Task: inverse folding
C-alpha cells in the first residue's frame, strides 16, 4: 500500500460529512480508497463487507487507532473503546449488563418521559431552545439513573459539559479547548464519587450503576483505577446526553414532514420505532469510525499492512443508493415492522453490541428517541421563524438555531403515548 498521498486532515475539517463521500466519488465509488489523515496512511472503507471486516476483532483493533484529541475529549483515556481481546470483553460485559437490560432501559425511559412532562409545563408561554432543554433533561435523568442525582442547575452544567465534549472532539480551536476542560471537570467529579463509594459513604445509595462500576474488577481481578472508573461512568452519561442531537433532528423531521406527526400520535410502538431508526439513518451524526489492522489483511483486492489506520464510512453508508432505496428521502416506513440487520444501520457501530465494539447503549438511544419523538408529536409545539439549516461542513452538526419551539397551554394539555422498551 503506497503512503504517498496528500494529508486530508484539513480537507476533512473543511468539508465535514461530505469528505468521505466526495473522496469515494473521486475514486469511482471504490470500496477502498487510499488516503492520509493526521499524518498517517489510511484506508477509507465502504459497504457491508467493510462493516463485517471492521467489527471482526481478529482483523481490526481499536488500541492505537484513536488520535489523542479524540481520547482527550470524547472517549477518555483507558475507555472501553480503546481496548481489545480479553480486556475489552471484560469491560464490555460490565457495560452491557448495565446498559442492555430491559428493566434498566425502561427505568431510564420512564425518568425521561416524566421529565418531559414537567419541562413542557415550565416552557408554557415562552420560546425555548429545544437542543439545550433536552440536553438538560437527559443529563438529569441519566445522572439520577446512575445514582448521582443532579437537580436543577447541576443537571444543566453537566449537560453543557457533555455537549461540549461531543461538540469539540472533531475540531481544533476554542471548541476543542472547551471539550478538554469539560472532560477534566466531569472526570474529576466522578473520580470523587468513585472514591466515596469505595470509602463506604453512607449518603450514597447502594445497588446503583455508580456502585457497580466503582466496585467492578477487570480481567486481572483488580479494581479499576479511579480515573478509568470515572471514564466509564462518563461514557454512560455523555452518550445519553448526546441523544439530544437525535431528538433535535426528530423535531426537524416532524417540522419538515408534518404528516408524520399524526402517525406518531397514535399508540403505535412499531411506527415510532421505525421513525427513530430513520432519524438515525437520515440525519448526519457520526461521519466515520476509526480502527486499525490487527494483522496483514486483504480486502477488496487490496493488501493492508498490519497497523494501517482504517476508516469505516458511516455517513456514506447510510446514503448509498446501492444500499438504500431513495436514500435522501426521509422514509420511516423502510423500517416498519422490521429491525435492521447488524451491518445495515450502523450509526452506533455494527456487529454484536454485547460482545463486539458496537455501542452497548444503542437500545437506550432507541428507547429514548422513540419516547421523545412521540412526545414531540403529541405536544406539537409552534416553530417560529429561525435558521433550521444543518451545515454538513460542521462535525457534529445540528440545526443552526438549536431548534426554537414555543409551547402553548393547549399543546401542554396533550399527553405523549407511553411505550415499553423493545430492547
Result:
Amino acid at each position: 500500500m503506497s503512503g504517498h498521498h496528500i494529508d486530508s486532515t484539513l480537507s476533512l475539517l473543511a468539508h465535514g460529512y461530505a469528505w468521505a463521500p466526495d473522496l469515494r466519488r473521486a475514486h469511482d465509488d471504490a470500496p477502498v480508497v487510499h488516503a492520509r489523515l493526521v499524518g498517517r496512511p489510511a484506508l477509507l472503507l465502504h459497504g457491508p463487507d467493510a462493516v463485517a471486516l471492521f467489527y471482526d476483532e481478529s482483523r481490526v483493533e481499536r488500541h492505537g487507532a484513536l488520535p489523542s484529541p479524540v481520547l482527550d475529549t470524547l472517549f477518555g483515556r483507558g475507555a472501553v473503546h480503546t481496548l481489545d481481546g480479553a480486556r475489552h470483553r471484560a469491560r464490555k460485559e460490565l457495560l452491557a449488563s448495565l446498559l442492555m437490560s430491559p428493566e434498566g432501559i425502561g427505568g431510564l425511559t420512564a425518568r425521561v418521559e416524566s421529565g418531559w412532562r414537567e419541562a413542557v409545563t415550565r416552557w408554557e408561554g415562552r420560546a425555548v431552545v429545544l437542543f439545550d432543554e433536552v440536553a438538560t433533561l437527559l443529563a438529569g435523568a441519566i445522572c439520577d439513573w446512575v445514582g448521582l442525582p443532579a437537580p436543577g442547575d447541576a443537571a444543566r452544567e453537566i449537560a453543557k459539559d457533555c455537549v461540549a465534549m461531543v461538540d469539540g472532539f472533531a475540531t481544533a480551536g476554542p471548541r476543542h479547548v472547551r471539550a478538554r476542560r469539560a472532560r477534566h471537570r466531569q472526570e474529576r467529579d466522578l473520580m470523587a464519587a468513585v472514591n466515596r463509594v469505595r470509602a463506604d459513604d453512607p449518603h450514597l445509595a447502594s445497588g446503583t450503576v455508580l456502585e457497580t462500576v466503582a466496585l467492578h474488577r477487570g480481567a486481572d481481578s483488580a479494581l479499576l483505577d479511579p480515573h478509568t472508573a470515572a471514564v466509564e461512568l462518563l461514557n454512560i452519561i455523555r452518550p445519553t446526553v448526546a441523544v439530544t442531537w437525535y431528538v433535535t433532528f426528530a423535531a426537524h423531521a416532524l417540522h419538515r414532514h408534518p404528516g408524520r406527526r399524526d402517525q406518531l400520535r397514535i399508540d403505535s410502538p412499531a411506527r415510532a420505532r421505525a421513525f427513530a431508526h430513520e432519524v438515525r439513518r437520515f440525519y448526519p451524526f457520526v461521519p466515520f469510525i476509526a480502527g486499525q489492522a490487527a494483522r496483514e489483511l486483504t480486502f477488496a483486492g487490496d493488501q493492508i499492512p498490519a497497523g494501517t489506520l482504517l476508516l469505516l464510512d458511516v455517513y456514506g453508508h447510510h446514503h448509498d443508493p446501492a444500499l438504500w432505496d431513495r436514500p435522501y428521502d426521509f422514509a420511516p416506513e423502510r423500517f416498519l415492522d422490521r429491525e435492521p440487520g447488524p451491518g445495515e444501520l450502523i450509526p452506533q457501530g455494527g456487529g454484536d453490541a454485547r460482545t463486539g465494539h458496537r455501542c452497548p447503549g444503542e437500545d437506550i438511544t432507541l428507547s429514548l428517541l422513540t419516547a421523545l419523538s412521540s412526545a414531540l408529536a403529541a405536544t406539537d409545539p409552534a416553530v417560529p421563524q429561525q435558521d433550521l439549516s444543518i451545515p454538513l461542513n460542521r462535525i457534529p452538526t445540528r440545526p443552526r438555531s438549536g431548534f426554537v419551539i414555543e409551547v402553548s397551554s393547549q399543546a401542554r394539555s396533550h399527553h405523549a403515548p407511553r411505550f415499553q422498551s423493545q430492547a
About this structure: The two ends are 42 Å apart (CA to CA). The chain has one domain: 9-412. The chain has a mean pLDDT of 91.
